[in-house]
Amino acid sequence: MALFRKLIQLSSTARQSSSSLSSSLKPKLSMTPSLVLAGSFWGFSTTSRQAGLGPTKSDEKPRVVVLGSGWAGCRFMKGIDTNLYDVVCVSPRNHMVFTPLLASTCVGTLEFRSVAEPIGRIQPAISSEPGSYFFLANCTALDPHNHVVHCQTVTDGADSLDPWDFKISYDKLVIAAGSQPLTFGIKGVTEHAVFLREVYHAQEIRRKLLLNLMLSDVPGVTEEEKRRLLHCVVVGGGPTGVEFSGELSDFIIKDVHQRYAHVKNYIHVTLIEANEILSSFDDRLRKYATKQLVKSGVRLVHGIVKDVQPEKIILNDGTNVPYGLLVWSTGVGPSGFVNNLELPKAPGGRIGVDEWLRVPTVQDVFSIGDCSGFLESTGRPTLPALAQVAERQGKYLASQLNKIGKAGGGHANAAKDNELGEPFVYKHLGSMATIGSFKALVDLRQSKEGKGLSMAGFVSWFIWRSAYLTRVLSWRNRFYVAINWATTFVFGRDISRI
Amino acid sequence: MALFRKLIQLSSTARQSSSSLSSSLKPKLSMTPSLVLAGSFWGFSTTSRQAGLGPTKSDEKPRVVVLGSGWAGCRFMKGIDTNLYDVVCVSPRNHMVFTPLLASTCVGTLEFRSVAEPIGRIQPAISSEPGSYFFLANCTALDPHNHVVHCQTVTDGADSLDPWDFKISYDKLVIAAGSQPLTFGIKGVTEHAVFLREVYHAQEIRRKLLLNLMLSDVPGVTEEEKRRLLHCVVVGGGPTGVEFSGELSDFIIKDVHQRYAHVKNYIHVTLIEANEILSSFDDRLRKYATKQLVKSGVRLVHGIVKDVQPEKIILNDGTNVPYGLLVWSTGVGPSGFVNNLELPKAPGGRIGVDEWLRVPTVQDVFSIGDCSGFLESTGRPTLPALAQVAERQGKYLASQLNKIGKAGGGHANAAKDNELGEPFVYKHLGSMATIGSFKALVDLRQSKEGKGLSMAGFVSWFIWRSAYLTRVLSWRNRFYVAINWATTFVFGRDISRI
What we know:
In chain A, helix 3 packs parallel to helix 13.
């Protein structure tokens, strides 16, 4: 029975050429839920097939489609009641990244898998329920009038398969597609710098760092080149940049001195920030962090990057800064996908939502996390692009949709305004950042001007570690994070370059 | 003082163009140990610099150069007395792979780092002693008459650095450069199949397997294509092929059924072998293994591969076998580097050595592991390309060189034949292989025709696990292997595709 239900949901219209963004916004296809698969794969080009999940029937569970697998989307999927809804997640990665601990993986304090949660572990229905799916794909266009999203698979260069298009009918759509790093139009950033938002970024940083450590020890490297190879430059003094600099200096002090003794005097970390580091933190904490970072050997430079070249960056004042590793962490902005959506926008270009996180111009579309912001008409400020905002929104929206589903409004165009209940209110719980050498900052004030506890040092570091350990989503990863911390303490960081 | 010693060992002859393989075999350069670095890096093309480590002086420690970081080279480095010798290792990877457990990492039973030992952990002197080094490089040519090896760095596509050449004078040279997979000249193997010898192979297999599992669930995939994507074909029925098939079927039974419930009926494993599987094992064990593999769903096919195409392989009898993942494991043979060496060869093309593992035509050159074999003149058979042979040879050679070093024969051309002692004798300790479902084979006979204990089943599996757990080199990895096994048992295998 379950298999049968799954099969009839796989509908397709064969041999239809893939639709472009513009044409997809027009009503065009009648998505009949019948099993007409797109002919033999071998017979014709993959781009010519168009299959998908057709609209749900009124006697079936309504379908929530979630675009994205970050904090917002995953917290939403964790909270949604799978007795009320089928859940379909569309994302180019099959896991959530526990971003606050990502910086630790770049130098081996934590392992990559300890900070990645497979979506199937967050919401098991996705891997087992007949109507719930995870699709490794990008959303390419949105057709809100027909309640359809258009997607394209991520085949990741697999040599035997070209990407293909498909579409999914939704009853409710949750856009949690995240943001992308800001480069301010500076030339060369995308080509030569590494961002720090995904596990593969951290992997690239670790491989590059170990490569440079090894190459700088090979005969034939000049003093100048050795200094360049081992110069790690971090641009951006927000929590990510500062935490990464702290981790790097820990790695240098504790591991490089012992395992790369030949080159230990050549490695340096420079943190470049245009304004002041950790600008969202208390003045006192900021001063403390500055002092600690300088003490552990991080060079803090006030400057604006003008140009990024393969071996050096050039600052606004003309200074040349040669580097071997460049990490770019200057905040995030709307992605190309969000920019291209024909939906109302909040100030700053994010998808505009009302107090209930709905996109008001269309039915059954919601947006949460970094990609969304309150519409100007709500009179509310845009919330910062933080994990805790995204997570809170995901949790809120799940309970909203559960409420709607229970009241019978789960299907497309079936929800009524009186089922909405309380609007979303964000209460900032405070900020934390580790700065290396067993030190961290904890700022529990609700806003920059607010009053409240703020502290720094070893106790804060302990709070930082405990807090994040309890926040790690699964018991498996919680266990591994603890084990990784313990082995790093006992055996040092792993330096295999794999 | 230590720094000074290190500095004078960095000698170079500036602006010399990189020498070719043929010319490098002629005596050509006087390697004076003076600090003449190759000018500014920025000034001229990187290929034009030639630096290196010059010959050691008689009042300095002699230098052993080890080519390779596999079982043989690493066991040698672990055993060499660093009070007697400086050790320089040249290898394109900075770690040793614990190969018997590599198959387990492909499906997440073990993590990649649990089977990789950094060389600096195996021989700490390499990372800290002023005259010992690890160089991330390939040896390009050998000049045995001048006691010099020519190398080229592995820069791995780093966008800011071209590879460069350098040379190292040795007092003793240990060639432990390993072997390469045999493809029998079959077209398409290198392009479309994955080998299983390095950590990056296991990573590729895991990524491909998870990608295919996810793509086969996306709308638009035909039944036929789904079956192809989820058809895992293993060519070669030796221990590696069988262990990998066993791990895969475990993964399918325990994890795919739970985490990829939608496609669980489409995934299959086929093991193709031209002769019989596990040919080195006892007949009874072989039958047991065959029965067990078939029971856990592995299809065993007798066949010879003729052609490998991106989506299918073609057997000699004309059968087409479509695949989504193809793992190639049909044994190993001499690498291009070994083929190009102008040294005496053993039957089969390996570097020929005498009973003391010396290359007899040249002074101070030894060869161990898969790349070497006994010369025909010794009247001894070529030993199999096994970890236990390589390890035993590494251990033997380390104690030989320690003996020679103690007797004052450590420097180039200083060893006398009467310091050699006992020749190397290999005693086979038996073979083990796991076949999945908590079952393994243990064959303790010394040869195929010999008598002795052989057994199969759960107890063997327990012996297999315990034996390898104690053989893992470092306490850190021993701990992690145990933890990985425990978490796999409790939480299942990790399916994040990172």
